[in-house]
Specification:
Blueprint (H helix, E strand, L loop, with lengths): L1 E8 L5 H9 L3 E5 L6 E9 L2 E7 L11 H13 L3 E7 L3 H14 L3 E6 L1 H6 L2 E3 L1 H8 L3 E3 L8 H14 L12 H16 L9 H9 L3 H10 L1 H22 L3 H17 L4 E3 L8 H9 L4 H42 L4 H18 L2 H17 L1 H15 L6 H7 L8 H7 L6 H10 L9 H11 L4 H25 L21 H33 L7 H28 L3 H29 L1 H13 L6 H9 L6 H12 L10 H7 L5 H13 L4 H11 L2 H29 L5
Parallel strand pairs: 1-4, 1-5, 5-6, 6-8
Antiparallel strand pairs: 2-3, 3-4, 7-9
Helix pairs in contact: 3-11, 7-8, 7-10, 9-10, 13-14, 13-15, 13-21, 14-22, 14-27, 15-22, 16-17, 17-18, 18-30, 19-21, 20-28, 20-29, 21-29, 22-27, 23-24, 24-25, 25-26, 26-27, 29-31, 30-31
């Protein structure tokens, strides 16, 4: 027998930790159909009974304010899981039960996992879970997800509910005379016309109209525009009445009565306090230091520096192993495959292209591990709290902080979920300013580019340079946001309230799972998207081939060299007394012929489609220090930023100037006369600010409601990036800074 069980709960309630504890390695990650919200699914087996566990996105409510809430609600309604396990933070019971009530109002079978019961006890909070279960008429099981305590009892309770297969009696809360009267009127109309009742309860649909739920209202307009308008008239009439009499509105009234219902239950001896409620808890004591106005930023900088230092220091050896592996693999293919297009495709298009990206997997893993540690411990929320003060100055909302962090504000995120996270902002202006600036963050796609250039030109100060790159990205994003907010997106900032979760000691198992999930996404992208783009770019850098007339010129040069050897050099070699001199002259001849081969390869690359594009852009790009090879890589980067590394690998493999074999790409760039630390710095600046990847542009257009904002993001960001890179290169050249 098999059933589906959904895990739901507020963010930071321990939901994902419990999911990892229940499913272990028996899980996989994907996306919900049509959206970028992550979908985690795994299996749990008990007594031969197999349960599919789905980890729903963390949400505070089931009203469609954000994409995560819509996804969670749609799953519950359309998939109809056997039971929903609502993970509740025992130390914040009142707030967490708000979501539980909404499940009960929908008539969904629910079981409560009273999680972090150990944290509650440490705070002097005692919870009578049996009495709470009696009042709510649903199972309540104490758990500690981090250690696995209570998981067996919890799953036994869920299994028992599934086997009984009883639909619970929906909870109907009184919301006061005015709201209740409107609900009765609306419910009668909805029931009489079977309006959306094939999916939802009539009273629940009425509640969603009163809560101004955009998804339900939109669905209602499509289903029956006349009845939907009639329901909206009832809502408007009630809103005016509540505003005149109580200076409030239906949505707030509903929330107040839900919390009132929760308080009435809690006061029935559910919670008792063994210690003074107002005592300073451990999290509060730590926050007095970590979020201090002066010490907090200093500690934050030290934490970030430590993260970068550990990442580069401990990933250096495994990165070297992978570089050596791909170098060995290229040498093997070079030795066994005959010359031709297939050999070129395998070596230059696949090994040098994709291998250049995969070579940074250890660095990415260490970075993701560090980010997971900061995130799971609760420290990232403190970073957001501290940065909120700064964001207000630049016309952004405090919630924008998390969108920036998700996008890679510290390192290793992705612009796409960052753009999607901007949905939590209710002000359209702040939302637009946020989604236009989150692509400036150091996402996981940019990390290989930065790692390559830092390793090649700033190896002695890798952690410091990466920290500076982070500061430049944040500073640039904030300044651009301020520019947008005082020009094309004018408007006042809205207030921000943020809840700080308690500090927790992350489990090593949870850290490994989170690290592997993100790393695997990176590897899959390299093996699919990057591979495909690398092959396309290889083709563009290979075709059309050199005209026969030019090929004949190079052949003539080789023959001239050989003729010269037969008439002069051979005589000198024969007369040479020393074996060393003979060997030296032979090497000179070999270098001469090799130089012709490489000039031919470079000429062929320039003659290709990509080479012509890069060459055409070179008169302008030279102002920023970029040659035609770099231009090819940056054009490919419009699709995905990792392609910059793979394209440089392919470009220098097809038309390399330095004939030395088996060099890593960073060594090739460092020894190339066209590169310098100043050029690398210019390219870093350009990579930070230029157009988002194509997928991010699509998301920006979708979230902003118009393709013009996606086009604006591409054009404005690229122009800004070029101007900044040009200034860096020109000023650096004039002052002689990092020029060689």
């Amino acid at each position: 027998m098999e059933t589906t069980i959904a895990l739901a709960g507020n963010p930071n309630s321990g939901k994902t930790t419990l999911f990892n504890e229940l499913t272990g390695a028996r899980q996989h990650v994907g996306n919900y159909p049509g959206v970028t919200v992550e979908k985690k699914q795994g299996t749990y087996v008990s007594n031969g009974y197999k349960m599919t566990i789905v980890d729903l996105p963390g949400t505070y409510s089931l009203t469609a304010y954000s994409l995560e809430e819509v996804v969670a609600r749609d799953f519950l309604v359309k998939e109809e899981p056997g039971v929903v396990i609502n993970i509740v933070d025992a130390s914040n019971l009142e707030r967490n039960l708000y979501l539980s009530l909404q499940f009960m109002e929908m008539g969904i079978p629910i079981c409560i996992a009273l999680n972090m019961i150990d944290v509650a006890k440490n705070r002097g909070i005692e919870i009578n879970e049996k009495k709470l279960s009696e009042f709510l008429r649903i199972p309540v099981v104490p758990t500690v997800a981090r250690s696995g305590r209570g998981k067996t009892e919890l799953m036994n309770a869920a299994e028992k509910m599934v086997k009984k297969n009883e639909r619970p009696i929906p909870l109907d809360i009184s919301y006061g005379g005015d709201v209740d009267q409107a609900l009765v009127e609306m419910e009668a109309e909805i029931s009489a016309n079977s309006f959306l009742t094939d999916t939802y309860r009539a009273r629940w649909v009425a509640l969603k109209y009163l809560e101004n739920d955009e998804q339900i209202r939109s669905l209602g307009q499509k289903t029956d525009p006349v009845l939907s308008s009639k329901l909206e008239e009832v809502v408007n009439r009630l809103s005016i009445h509540l505003q005149d009499t109580l200076d409030t509105y239906p949505e707030a009234m509903i929330a107040d009565h839900r919390y009132g219902y929760i308080k009435s239950i809690i006061k029935q001896g559910i919670i008792s306090f063994k210690q003074d409620r107002d005592r300073l808890f451990l999290s509060d004591k730590i926050d007095k230091v970590l979020t201090n106005r002066f010490l907090g930023p200093v500690i934050m900088i030290a934490v970030l520096m430590g993260l970068y230092h550990l990442t580069f220091a401990y990933s250096e050896v495994p990165v070297g192993w992978l570089e050596s592996f791909f170098g060995w693999l290229g040498g093997m293919v070079e030795a066994f495959l005959p010359d031709g297009l297939i050999k070129s495709l395998v070596i230059s298009g696949i090994i040098d292209g994709v291998g250049g990206v995969l070579g940074f997997v250890p660095l990415i893993m260490f970075m993701f591990f560090g980010i997971s540690l900061l995130e799971d411990s609760g420290y990232l929320a403190r970073v957001a709290f501290m940065l909120d003060r700064v964001f207000q100055i630049f016309g952004l909302h405090g919630s924008s902080v998390m969108a920036f962090i998700v996008s890679g504000g510290i390192a290793g995120g992705c612009a796409v979920p960052g753009v999607m996270a901007s949905r939590t902002l209710k002000s359209p202006r702040e939302r637009l300013a946020t989604l236009l600036t989150v692509p400036f963050m150091n996402c996981g796609a940019k990390l290989p580019v930065f790692a390559l250039l830092v390793a090649a030109f700033f190896a002695a100060n890798e952690a410091k340079i990466m920290f500076i790159i982070t500061l430049v990205a944040w500073g640039g994003a904030l300044l651009v946001a301020k520019l947008l907010r005082i020009t094309i997106i004018k408007g006042a900032a809205t207030p921000f309230v943020m809840e700080l979760p308690p500090y927790r000691l992350p489990t090593f198992k949870g850290l490994l799972i989170h690290t592997w999930e993100r790393t695997w996404q990176y590897i899959k992208k390299a093996g699919t998207v990057i591979l495909g783009i690398s092959i396309v770019i290889w083709a563009m850098m290979t075709f059309p081939s050199l005209p026969e007339s030019k090929t004949q010129i190079f052949e003539a040069e080789r023959k001239a060299v050989m003729v010269g050897v037969s008439s002069t050099v051979v005589e000198e070699l024969e007369s040479a007394d020393e074996e060393a001199e003979l060997s030296e002259r032979a090497e000179g001849l070999k270098d001469l012929l090799t130089a012709i081969d490489y000039r031919e390869a470079e000429s062929a690359l320039k003659h290709s489609i990509a080479g012509r594009m890069g060459t055409a852009l070179e008169p302008a790009s030279r102002l920023a220090g970029f040659d035609w090879r770099t231009n090819i890589a940056l054009v490919g980067g419009f699709a995905a930023k990792e392609v910059v590394v793979s394209t440089l690998g392919t470009a220098y493999s097809l038309g390399e100037v330095d004939p030395e074999e088996n060099q890593s790409l960073s060594e090739t760039l460092a020894s190339n006369p066209g590169w310098s630390p100043l050029v690398a710095l210019s390219l870093i600046i350009f990579t930070i600010f230029y157009a988002p990847c194509f997928v991010a542009v699509v998301c920006i257009s979708k979230e902003a409601g118009s393709w013009k904002w996606g086009a604006f993001s591409m054009a404005f960001n690229t122009l800004l990036a070029f101007v900044l890179a040009m200034l860096v290169f020109q000023v650096g050249t004039a002052l002689g800074i990092l020029a060689g």
